Amino acid sequence: MPEHSPNGQAERPxxxxxxxxxxxxxxxxxxxxxxxxVVVKYGGAAMAPPAQPPGEQAAQLGPGxxxxxxxxxxxxxxxxxGVDLVVVHGGGPEIxxxxxxxxKRPVFVxxxxxxxxxxxxxxxxVLVGRIxxxxxxxxxxxxxxxxGLSGEDGLLIRARPRLxxxxxxxxxxxxxxxxxxxxxxxxxxxxxxxxxxxVAAGPGGQPYNVNADAAAGSVAASLDAEKxxxxxxxxxxxxxxxxxxxxxxxxxLAEVERLLDAGSLHSxxxxxxxxxxTALRAGVRSAHILDGRxxxxxxxxxxxDRGVGTMxxxxxxxxxxxxxxxxRT
Length: 329
Fold this sequence. Notes:
- With 329 residues, the protein is of the alpha/beta class.
């Protein structure tokens, strides 16, 4: 009797064989990462729809409920095969849209949102009250798998006020001072996925707006994670953003530090690479920058031989990741 796909159509034997081959390829990677911690930063850029030319239909990368569900399904699958997942999320584009709807103009200084008291309330509302609850609710369609947190909960993420080199008052904008992983370890220890909104606890209990990329790097470092994964809106790290052929497949920490010192990176990539450096210096085994709009990018990176995007390892100073690795991981 022929097997049927979910849409009721009979599947050809060769299609079934192809599915079996995918599972076979994934098996060693599942064994490799089961019981290890992976921190995933789900960026606001990965959540936002890409601009479409007038009259054109959205491409397959285009987000929306189906793409959020795809990300959620991937995270749930990783949890059910034994990976300890921690999700850190941003939401910059949604915060900006909410501000504009209220007639408030977003102001940025070197990529950091100037955050007065009214904006801080809005940041809290969007990150903690909307995005975090949505992600947790979608994940829990798969069972009791996720718990939502903000950096304020249990003083999970503590922040110090950021000082602008030019003397501008940035308001309630902070840098990550410390991460206490106690609650995260307790949750992953019982099979739950912590989903963290990056509002941090500042001096005197004041909430502070911290960069989600930086927070993810510090969370991964505090957990001694196996991997740190950034899901964003580009394929990975490019030597030249205008040249699709300049995508880095593998890099070393030394190469990342040289790029940061050179000061020639796109502003959106700088906090990610600082987060990568924070994590790798603390002993995290590898970091990855992937296009979160690509369906199943997380599974493709973790569970296939080739992977996608850019992978960064600590390596030895002066050597490239391509030269030092015999295999993808």
